[in-house]
Design brief:
Blueprint: H1 2-14, H2 60-70, H3 81-87, H4 107-110, H5 122-142, E1 148-150, H6 173-210, H7 212-225, H8 229-253, H9 263-278, H10 285-298, H11 301-307, H12 319-325, H13 331-339, H14 362-372, E2 376-380, H15 389-401, E3 406-410, H16 414-427, E4 428-430, E5 437-442, E6 447-448, E7 453-458, H17 460-468, H18 473-476, E8 479-484, H19 496-505, E9 510-514, H20 520-551, E10 570-574, E11 581-590, E12 593-599, H21 607-613, H22 623-636, H23 662-681, H24 685-695, H25 710-719, E13 725-728, H26 732-753, H27 758-785, H28 790-814, H29 830-839, H30 846-854, E14 857-860, H31 866-878, E15 883-886, E16 900-903, H32 912-919, E17 930-935, H33 940-948, H34 962-974, H35 978-990, H36 999-1018, H37 1032-1037, H38 1044-1053, H39 1056-1060, H40 1073-1086, H41 1094-1098, H42 1115-1139, H43 1145-1148, H44 1167-1174, E18 1224-1225, E19 1231-1232, H45 1237-1244, H46 1247-1252, H47 1258-1282, H48 1289-1306
Parallel strand pairs: 1-4, 2-9, 2-10, 3-7, 3-8, 5-7, 8-9, 11-17, 13-15, 13-16, 14-15, 16-17
Antiparallel strand pairs: 5-6, 11-12, 18-19
């Protein structure tokens, strides 16, 4: 309502001719209340869009994809000047020595190899060995799994293990012997465990008497390590007896007091749960009697009677004593309110022979069946639920089948690539033929064993390079499975289309994993349609192969092509239950202290939201929150008819149940949600509103800068034992600064505790130690020279003893006290710590990270190098670091589970998807039974929005670009296997997620494809048959940078670079600093563009080293850019006019927010509307609503025209035109300047200068410069390959620039 009121008031200020009135009460009308005087609207645009025709093309691929719409398009005749001009030599004279048709080395060849795979140099071999050792160490920190040796086997058909097993029929003698041996081994193991318990039982029992909680912890640690059920049962009984004794003593000591410490009762009930659920078959009469007695002491008489009806009178507790020992509530309420996170989960007990380490759940077995049957699957399951296990099972299967089958694992980030590669190298070992490797990596920065491995770990862009590379198709045919991790990236705004291309180009089965997809059914249906296409294509190709072999020709098909039969089925595997509950808390500041208020998930909802959308599917309550909801409902509506029925003690699924399970609690939660929804729908909306209001926390939010309180927040979490924790922030600077602020806080705390003379003593000891060390070294030299050593031995021993003594004293003096560090020293041994620290000694942030790590603190963001990230990941997982600040990159699949997650900074990037990804890290399976999520400095309405918002549906992004079309045409015409290449290209064009079940969108994409071809033909990158020509290779090489790649080649072809790159004197191969700086200025306008906000330009900052704001392009380049943009916009405007026929005009003639139509008879008396409706001339592609502003089609030619002026329902707008704006303005019309960071760095070579003057984060600046350096190198190599004249000025200038830039960058 506030938004509406604000909008109304703004409009009322704009309308000055008459009184608009107040915003309330609301009035709706379809009649226009504008006056009947004519508005000064221009009748037509001065500039008309040229009516361009299409250049005819003869290509079977074009006919197959867009043949159905070609007949309706205007084509140019063969004698048209535009067509005839294509035949003429368009290239600049200087380019006659350039073989622009020559194929270039591809992106894979140019990516730096981490190690020279063929080198026999001992140093190279040693560094390779060190790499493998560290990878295994890193992998071992990720999961404690012993390495598995893989042996290639002949393929056998696997049974479906999900079904019931057949009875052991024909058991061979060998089977019987093996079974007996196993039995004997098990008995021996049981005996060992019994002996171990006998030796430990006395000390544990004594510990439980002295301190029940620490004793129980030791008891549970023993239970985790023990495998024998009979020993475990004995241990549990000992624990129960100790708990009963402790409860009785506690109740006697607390007699007369109103409250009891129920944690003792919780421990007792935990033991009862365990005994009844896991060891019920071992329980004897006496054991049942003891359990019944315990239940009586807790006040659960009915449960006690149902378990053991008859009891001796002497053991019976008298009624008057009952209140003394009773917990004071029913068993159901007690279990939900105090034992919620301990409730037993329903888990299968029957092992699966395919899995050795754990007993998989039903849904996990379904995944294994998918892999066994060579099927594909979309898998949606919460973080830490164990979905990744299927990936490793899939890898193992392919490794066992042969030595040349490949599994590709696609991860969204480089950090995840490194992690998965380490896990694979730790999990599997295999003896492979020489030159082959088990695991390889391919990212844009480096590659290692990428095309000679069986398991390739890569990022989407690099896998796309391999799939689209014409001469890598034989390798592509070796792929047996592709695993897509975090496949919801398909819905992102940057790089989403690449995920689509991969999913539609692969012929083999795949696994697509994610924790956050809201419409998995739609995604699965789309992928199934893609698989149906490949089924038909495979049949065609198989027939072709068969017929060619029959004729006797053997084309270049690998032997195993189509040999492995795959299924074309795509299964959807859903699992929604998190192992741990998550509870949310809001942080506030009161009296200079941090306070936490529990945030009940229902507090995020409103009655309107529940009525309209129901409860969000993933909004779950912990058992204690369900009780809280029931109590509030009971309190608000006194005459609530179902109050008794839904009371925990009477609830149908809890009735007389000794062990309430997690699934029972979930049913109770669903019943309460259904009931609250029925209140809203059946007229009790006010009561429901009061319930939601009462559940909302009354947190007092302090307006002061809460980030200064950050160290106090961390300290408070430590006191509450809520560490280890991840703290999510969204600015790189904030991530580093908050981590440092916590470290400073601890240092100051230590300084206050230090005795006044401690520093002086340390200084004296350090000086003395230095002197003793010198004496020892001196003595050593004398000893070596002297023959008679005995005299000096005593002296040496004295010096050594003094040295050791001083060293110990100094270490003790400088030692960090336990309460001044968050590090858990016991978690990691000194050797391991040193190993991790040594890896970063030469890294930029190495020393800083080491200093923070000593305090148990770390930070993690995308601008760190992989060694720095690994330090934080390894030490956090091992438990040494317990406080890590991070950006969202850590939420994408990185294995760093923790006890708590804290959102410590608000941001536009903190949305429903990121919230779920990040909060999913809380609660370590096997360590925490509950995870905590804290909101610190996040506005209250935002918290509610995050909790109740659904994850956005995957609907697909615009899938095509000019460069992609060129790369597809390159693949189709140059592919090793033409049929296969063509099938892949058609699959990309036909199977966009955007156009799935949307015929209009499909037609629009066909038209965009044709527009792209026209542009590529006109620019000289394709001929009329669709074959690549000219500088097509160079454009496709720079595909990361569209439209800059097209502009760069247009500058090259027009001779501008040849004019600019003139050497210092004729015949020289060296270029002056001015030439280099001008060349850098042009390239900084094209690549790695970063804009400043307009307000930064207005501020009066003083700059020391950098120019900061990038100067305008040189005049000749600026004119060439304007000419390029003009040509593109002419063609694109024509395309928009043609595609406008696909618009849904019913929707177009509606006002965008109110949806009121302005085409009916009731609008006829409005001059404005009748004017809009009558002047069709010059308004074909412009939205009727935007016509209100007087826009015409001719305005599409102007670059400054906003993108949204076109028809909204055609699915494409001006942002898809490959134009490069020389100037950019914000929505208030203020000019935004480009950051001159690349040019500034080229001039002064200082990273610190960019941090100080250009206002960049150091890590971010480093990676932007690295990216720029890679682009320079790529251009330089391409130009050298294209030009046969070794002394060409442009080639030499780019080589000089690239070399100089790399040298400066390497010195950082």
């Amino acid at each position: 309502m506030k938004d509406y009121e604000y909008l109304w008031n703004t409009i009322s200020k704009v309308v000055r001719d008459f009184e608009v009135g107040q915003p309330f009460p609301l009035r709706t009308t379809k009649f226009c209340f504008l006056q009947k005087t004519l508005s000064p609207i221009k009748d037509s645009s001065s500039e008309m869009v040229p009516n361009l025709g299409f250049i005819p093309m003869s290509s079977s691929l074009v006919d197959q994809f867009a043949g159905d719409i070609l007949k309706d398009l205007p084509f140019l005749k063969s004698d048209d000047p535009i067509v005839t001009s294509l035949v003429k030599q368009r290239e600049f004279d200087e380019l006659v020595h350039w073989h622009s048709h020559k194929p270039l080395s591809d992106d894979y060849d140019r990516t730096k190899s981490q190690f020279d795979e063929k080198s026999r140099d001992p140093r190279a071999l040693k560094s390779l060995q060190k790499y493998h050792v560290f990878q295994r160490f890193y992998g071992n920190s990720l999961e404690m799994v012993s390495s598995k040796v893989i042996v290639t086997q002949t393929i056998k058909s696997k049974k479906d293990f999900s079904g019931p097993k057949s009875k052991k029929a024909h058991e061979t003698k060998a089977d019987i012997i093996a079974r007996e041996n196993k039995k004997r081994l098990f008995a021996k193991e049981e005996q060992k465990e019994e002996q171990k318990w006998n030796s430990l039982s006395f000390s544990i029992e004594e510990e439980m008497k002295a301190n029940l909680h620490s004793g129980i912890k030791k008891l549970e640690d023993f239970l985790k390590s023990c495998k024998s059920s009979s020993v475990k049962f004995r241990v549990e009984m000992v624990g129960l007896t100790a708990c009963l004794k402790a409860w009785k003593e506690h109740c006697r000591s607390e007699e007369g007091k109103t409250t009891k410490d129920l944690s003792v009762a919780v421990q007792m009930m935990k033991r009862i749960h365990s005994l009844m659920e896991k060891y019920s078959e071992l329980l004897q009469e006496d054991d049942r009697q003891l359990i019944a007695r315990c239940l009586k002491y807790l006040g659960f008489d009915e449960l006690a009677s149902s378990l053991h009806p008859t009891q001796d009178a002497e053991n019976d507790i008298k009624a008057k004593k009952r209140s003394k020992y009773s917990v004071g509530m029913g068993p159901a309420r007690f279990q939900l309110q105090y034992m919620g996170h301990y409730l037993i989960r329903d888990e299968r007990k029957d092992p699966d022979p395919r899995v050795q380490d754990f007993i998989p759940d039903t849904w996990q077995r379904e995944l294994l069946d998918v892999v066994d049957k060579n099927e594909s699957a979309v898998i949606v399951a919460p973080t830490s639920s164990g979905k990744t296990y299927a990936s490793y099972y899939c890898m193992e299967k392919v490794l066992r089948e042969s030595d040349d089958g490949v599994v590709v694992y696609v991860a969204p980030t480089k950090a995840l690539v490194n992690q998965v590669a380490a896990t694979v190298q730790n999990r599997f070992t295999k003896n492979l033929p020489s030159g082959e490797a088990l695991c390889g990596v391919f990212t844009r920065e480096y590659r290692h064993d990428a095309l000679n491995c069986q398991v390739l770990i890569t990022v989407p862009a690099c896998f796309e390079i391999l799939l689209l590379a014409p001469h890598r198709q034989n390798w592509v045919k070796k792929i047996r499975y592709v695993i897509f991790d975090e496949v919801h990236c398909l819905g992102g705004e940057i790089g989403a289309e690449i995920w689509e291309h991969l999913l539609v180009m692969i012929r083999c089965p795949f696994l697509a994993l994610s924790a956050t997809i809201s419409n998995p059914e739609h995604l699965t249906e789309w992928l199934q349609s893609v698989k149906r296409y490949w089924k038909e294509e495979d049949k065609v190709i198989e027939n072709t192969v068969t017929s060619k072999r029959h004729v006797g020709r053997h084309p270049g098909f690998p032997k195993d092509h189509l040999q492995v039969k795959q299924s074309y089925k795509v299964r959807l595997v859903l699992y929604g239950e998190r192992y741990n509950d998550l509870e949310k808390h809001v942080c506030s500041i009161k009296d200079d202290d941090i306070h936490f208020d529990h945030f009940h998930p229902c507090a995020a909802l409103t009655t309107d939201h529940i009525e309209r959308y129901g409860f969000p599917p993933d909004l779950s309550l912990s058992p204690r929150e369900s009780i809280q909801l029931y109590d509030t409902m009971f309190q608000i509506w006194e005459s609530w008819p179902r109050a008794q029925e839904l009371c925990p003690e009477n609830f149908i699924h809890f009735n007389n149940k000794l062990v309430i399970k997690k699934m029972d609690a979930r049913k109770y939660e669903e019943s309460l949600k259904t009931e609250l929804t029925s209140w809203i729908k059946n007229g009790n909306i006010e009561e429901a509103r009061m319930v939601l209001k009462t559940l909302s926390p009354k947190a007092d939010f302090s307006p002061e800068n809460m980030i200064t309180m950050f160290p106090l927040l961390v300290e408070k979490l430590r006191k509450m034992e809520k560490l280890p924790a991840l703290f999510f922030l969204f600015k790189l600077g904030a991530v580093e600064n908050t981590a440092k602020s916590v470290s400073t806080f601890l240092e100051e705390k230590q300084e206050k505790k230090r005795p006044p003379k401690a520093d002086k003593e340390a200084h004296v000891m350090a000086n003395r130690l230095r002197k003793v060390k010198k004496s020892l070294e001196k003595q050593k030299i004398i000893d070596e020279k002297s023959q008679k050593k005995t005299r000096n031995v005593d002296q040496s021993l004295i010096h050594e003893a003094e040295h050791d003594n001083l060293l110990k004293s100094l270490e003790k003096n400088l030692e960090i006290p336990q309460d001044c560090t968050y590090a858990d020293r016991k978690a990691v041994d000194t050797e391991t710590l040193q190993k991790v620290f040594n890896r970063v000694k030469s890294a930029r942030k190495g020393e800083e990270l080491k200093a923070l790590a000593e305090r148990g603190i770390g930070y993690h963001h995308s601008a760190m190098n992989f060694k720095e990230k690994q330090l934080v990941e390894i030490l956090f997982r091992k438990g040494f670091l317990r406080v890590v600040t991070a950006t969202g990159t850590l939420a994408l699949g990185i294995n760093m589970p923790c006890r708590s997650v804290v959102f410590a900074q608000n941001s536009v990037y903190l949305d429903a998807l990121n919230y779920r990804q990040m909060s999913g890290r809380a609660g370590r399976r096997g360590q925490d039974l509950m995870g905590d999520v804290y909101f610190f400095d996040i506005p209250f309405p935002k918290i509610g929005k995050l909790i109740k918002s659904n994850v956005p549906e995957l609907r697909g992004q615009f899938p095509l670009s000019i460069t992609l079309v060129l790369r597809l045409m390159l693949l189709a015409s140059k592919g090793d296997d033409p049929e296969d290449a063509k099938a892949k290209v058609l699959s990309v064009l036909k199977h966009s997620l955007l156009s799935f079940k949307q015929p209009r969108a499909m037609d629009m994409l066909k038209l965009y494809f044709l527009f792209s071809l026209q542009l590529l033909v006109k620019e000289g990158f394709l001929d009329q048959e669709g074959n690549p020509m000219g500088f097509a290779g160079l454009v496709s090489h720079l595909h990361y940078h569209e439209p800059s790649n097209l502009v760069f080649v247009s500058f090259l072809v027009s001779g501008l670079f040849h004019d600019l790159c003139q050497p210092t004197r004729k015949g020289s191969k060296h270029f002056s600093q001015d030439v280099m700086e001008n060349l850098m200025l042009v390239l900084a306008h094209l690549f790695g563009r970063r804009y400043f906000p307009p307000k930064f330009q207005d501020a009066k900052y003083e700059f020391y080293q950098s120019k900061v704001f990038l100067d305008d392009l040189p005049e000749d380049f600026s004119d060439a850019l304007d000419e390029y943009n003009r040509k593109i916009m002419e063609d694109f405007s024509t395309f928009l006019q043609i595609v406008s026929k696909l618009a849904d005009m019913n929707q177009e003639y509606q006002l965008p927010l109110s949806k009121i139509k302005f085409t009916g008879k009731e609008c006829e008396d409005s001059q404005l509307v009748s004017h809009l409706m009558s002047c069709k001339e010059g308004r074909v592609a412009i939205s009727p609503f935007v016509c209100l502003s007087g826009n015409f089609d001719g305005d599409l030619l102007q670059l400054e025209t906003p993108n949204h002026v076109t028809l909204g329902t055609i699915g494409v707008n001006r942002s898809q035109a490959p134009v490069l704006l020389s100037q950019r303005f914000d929505n208030r019309g203020r000019k935004m300047s480009l950051n001159a960071y690349a040019l500034d760095f080229y001039k002064h070579g200082s990273l610190l200068g960019l941090v100080q003057d250009n206002r960049m984060n150091e890590g971010e600046a480093y990676y932007l410069l690295k990216d720029f350096a890679l682009t320079l190198k790529s251009i330089s190599v391409s130009l050298r390959e294209l030009c046969e004249n070794e002394d060409d000025n442009v080639v030499l200038a780019f080589e000089q620039l690239s070399t100089t830039f790399w040298e400066k960058f390497s010195n950082v």
